[in-house]
Amino acid sequence: MDWVALRLSLELAGLTVLLLLPIGVALGRFLAYREIRGKEILEALVALPLVLPPTVFGYYLLVAFGATSPLGRAWQALFDRPLVFSFEGLLLASLIFNLPFAVQPMQRAFEAIPTDLRAAAACCGMSSWRVLLWIELPLAWPGILTALVLSFAHTLGEFGVVLMVGGAIPGETETIAIAIYDRVQAFDDRAAARMATFLLLFSLATIAVTFFASRRVGRRLG
Amino acid sequence: MRGLEVELEQRAPIPLSARLACSPGELTALVGPSGSGKTTILRAIAGLYLPARGRVVIDGTVWLDTAARIAVPAHRRRVGMVFQSYALFPHMSALDNVAAAMGDRPRPERIARARELLRLVHLDGLEARKPAELSGGQQQRVAVARALAREPAVLLLDEPFSAVDRATRERLYREIAELRRILSMPVVLVTHDLEEAMLLADRLTVLHRGRTLQTGTPLEVTTRPASPEVARLVDLANLFEGRITGVEPSRALTRLDWRGRLLEVRGPAPAPVGAVVPWVVPDGFVILHRRDRPSRGERENPIPGRIEQMLALGQTARLTLRPDHAPELPIRFSVPLHVARRNGIEPGVTATVSLLAEGIHLMAPTSADNRSARGEGLQDGA
Amino acid sequence: MKAVSTVSRRVSLISAACPVVALLLRGVPIRAEEVPLVAAAADLRFALAEIAERFTRETGERVGLVFGSSGNIARQIRQGAPFALFLSADEAYVLDLARDGFTRDEGTLYAIGRLVLLVPNGSPLALDGTLEDLARAIRDGRLRRFAIADPAHAPYGKRADEVLRYKGIREAIRPFLVYGENVAQAAQFATSGNAEGGIVAYSLALSPQLQALGGHAPIPAEWHAPLRQRMVRLRGAGPVADRFYGYLQAEPARAIFRRYGFVLPGEPVTE
User: Do C140 and C158 belong to one domain?
Assistant: First the structure.
């Protein structure tokens, strides 16, 4: 069991989810509530990582923040290390390729809230923040939870993009999924099997727990 | 200036040209067909909708003034609104729903006051229930309590009774009437149900395609409509055209030629002699002559004709008379059923009605009248 | 109401700031202890692991190892990968990088690689380094799948391709070929039970792991361009990387290379 790789994977998935919570809520609400021209284009952009092959996606990410790109160069100047092949680069890639997993369930959850409810909340004297906290989030919570769980599980399993953008550097970008791949090539089947089983059970447990929790939450909301 | 003043102007996406006023303690009904913009106007008052141009002032406080770039957001207006769908928060109990409107008070105070309000709307004992566990009528009452909890400067009701059955609605009308005795703020009720408006409102504003056409007491609007359009909107059946043939200012009379029959109308002429004007005579001013006694000459504006249709609805007979002099312009009116029976009224018999002089209401000529100088009826179909 | 909304705003700000703070804390590199990254061609997987372990035992200093195809590693270096040392299986990659300014110098030749035919246990193929039996197996249907590394970016794959061409069976064997991303993956494919064999690195075949899975037969070196394996220090390589670079060129390391079938520069080829 490669504990470093496991910890790396959990950190990557955990930070992705933590950062996607506010991003997903903001974007999900925006798409749910606003009717603007070109909304379909925005939705399509958000959904793009779903349909794009990971290698195509990885390729474009390299173009976007590789060492020769403006973003990559700026990062190098600021932190004296490249954005690609670093954990931060991986996190950035992870945020982008998990966007549809985070935004879509949240958007559906916010769309399901009748518009009159938010209007009624405003008429009750609630500012936008209070409406979000006391009305929208309690009602949209199952969808938000689903979004976070999906993103977490997806990040744990992501391989192609991580490999292309991260480079499988132990301690920095070698996630557990990559480590399994590496162990197989090193003819260390036992280690590979151990890690694969762990990942399988961990993912199953995470998803089961959250479905259980969201059903409880759903029942509470009536 | 106390009370509510509203002026809204907009061309698109929803056309609006509305003026509304409501004094404290008064209930104004906003009446019009679906799509006439009633809900939009209500939402503009509440601050949920921003019109292109407009002013909303309540008790001297400006909530909206587009010219001065003032637009107080909805959550800062003291407005209580009851939505057509009630919009109760499904994850909160009735008590918490009502308490939610009092966010600026400490919790114990909120709970106590919420309980009071629920008691006021006859829901004590049901505070802990969630909206899903309440009937439609109960939900509506929670919505009203929540609106009142805000201590609103104006109470807005958006077709609050449309989703409720008749029996419950009757009960709710009585409760609203009761509540009104203690409410001191202006109340605006939006409804497409004219009867409801007649029952509950002190003033009626008729709305069509975003334009407020007439405001007045329910009686005024339904007996003295400002235009044929209003007459149609308030379901006045007997809408015709006639030519003014003369005036007698000393007796406050105007003479009207209706397809050859001369009518006497009490009231001033809205146009010069010779002009063609639309006119209307509401049901209550059409009197059936007794058939056993011959008609006397003094009877006002007698119109002989033939009964075409008689519909018995409850204890009322709804009759349609085809006048002899203008059979294509039927007069609709109603009498108690026993009167109809006593006079042997049935389809096919001849009968005469009087159009009371003070009931005939003349309106200013519209541009459409210039087309029909022959005095044809303006009803859609017949 | 004002008090509540300010609090809720603060809470929201804090919860948004937490991940950023966590990220920044994590991102602070601990430069005090340098663990240089050594990117090596996949054929060195076992040999280099042993050498590195020895290095750490002797000096107490650690190096990080990353394996892949030489072509892939060269690409990553061009994209800014933070490697300190590159051990390529084909010196062309190193010389190109040197010319383009990514390296400290032109590096040094550290080994000559060899190809073998790998035949897993239970395979119908014979252990024939002349590939005669392989040619027969193509014709008589014994062969269903044969693994080599990807010639596009793996030197061992490219040489395997040359060998097949030399033998004249390249077109015939093409429908049966499976490509590993690097030569280690090719070896893994070859021994996975889904192929009848493959052409892989001698150094891999000599490892205990692969010895247990099958046998191998050396392929004549003249049949392909030589596998001149060159290593180089990259720009930004630190003192530990320098020391490891030196260590690789001296005795305990050279003995290990020899044990894994590499021919060291300047030494005669022993069959």
Answer: yes
Nearest to C238 by CA among C28, C27, C37: C37
Strand order in the sheet with C85-87: C64-68, C37-41, C85-87, C227-233, C108-113
C190 plus C237 within the same structural domain: no
Chain C CA closest to residue B106: C1
Query: Is residue C26 scored above 80 in pLDDT?
Result: no
| Torsion A59-A61-A64-A69 (CA) sign | negative
User: What is the arithmetic mean of pLDDT over C233-244?
Assistant: 91
What's the Cα-to-Cα distance from C115 to each of B44, C198, C219, C256, rounded to whole Å? 82, 10, 6, 18
Would you kindly state where each structural domain of chain B is located, as residue ranges? 4-232, 237-281+358-372, 282-355
Per residue in C32-72, pLDDT (tens digit) is: 457 899 999 999 999 999 999 999 999 999 999 999 999 99
DSSP string, A48-67: HHHHS-HHHHHHHHHHHHST
Read off the pTM.
0.78
Distance CA A184, CA A170 (A): 16
CA distance C13 to chain B (A): 22
Alpha carbon dihedral B47, B49, B53, B56, in 10-degree steps, equals -20
A127 Cβ under 8 Å from any chain B Cβ? yes
- The domain limits of chain A are 3-220
Residue of chain A with shortest Cα separation from B82 = A120
Nearest in space to B317 (alpha carbons), one of B341, B297, B352, B282: B341
Alpha carbons within 13 A on the beta-carbon side of A211 = 7
Q: Which structure tokens are listed for C112?
A: 């000559």
Q: Encoding tokens for residue B250?
A: 């000393």
Are the beta carbons of B278 and B244 closer than 8 angstroms? no
**Nearest residue to B5 via CA among B36, B32, B40, B44:** B44
Name which of A78, A185, A188 to mutate to probe chain C: the one with the most chain C Cβ atoms within 10 A of its Cβ.
Answer: A185
pLDDT of residue A219: 58
Q: What pLDDT, in 10s, does the model give residues A140-150?
A: 888 888 888 88
DSSP codes, C155-186: HHHHHHHHHHHHHT-HHHHGGGEEEESSHHHH
Alpha helices (runs of H) in chain B, residue ranges in sequence order: 38-46, 94-99, 107-120, 136-149, 166-180, 194-200, 218-223, 228-233, 337-342
Q: Which fold has domain A3-220?
A: MetI-like fold (1.10.3720)
Q: Does residue C8 sit at the A interface (CB-CB below 8 Å)?
A: yes
For residue A134, list its beta bridge partners: none
Which chain C residues are within 8 Å of A67, Cβ to Cβ?
78-80
Specify whether C119 is located in the same domain as C252: no
Q: Which positions in chain A touch C187 (Cβ < 8 Å)? A: 187
Distance from CA of B103 to the nearest CA of A (A): 7
Tokens 């990807």, residue located: C150
CA of C37 vs chain B CAs: smallest distance (Å) = 55
pLDDT at A222 over 80: no
**Pairwise CA distance, residues B248 & B251, whole Å:** 6
Q: Using CA atoms, how far apart are residues A111 and A140, in angstroms rounded to an integer?
A: 9
Neighbours of chain A (3+ CB pairs under 8 A): B, C
Q: Cβ of B48 and A221 within 8 Å?
A: no
Preceding peptide of B13 cis, ω within 30°: yes
Rounded mean pLDDT of B28-49?
91
Tell whether the model's pLDDT for residue B106 goes beyond 80: yes
Print the domain residue range for C175.
113-223
- What class has domain B282-355? mainly beta
102-131 in B: which are within 8 Å (CB) of C? 103-104
Distance, in Å, from the CA atom of B337 to the CA atom of B319, rounded to the nearest integer, reads 10
Cα–Cα dist C187/C13, whole Å: 53
Alpha-carbon gap, residue C187 to C206, rounded angstroms: 12
CB contact under 8 A, A124 and B132: no
